[in-house]
Amino acid sequence: MSTPPLNPGDEAAPGTPGSGEDTCPSCNGSGKSSDGKPCPTCGGSGTIVEGIGGG
Question: What are the structural domain ranges in the chain?
Answer without folding.
Answer: 23-55
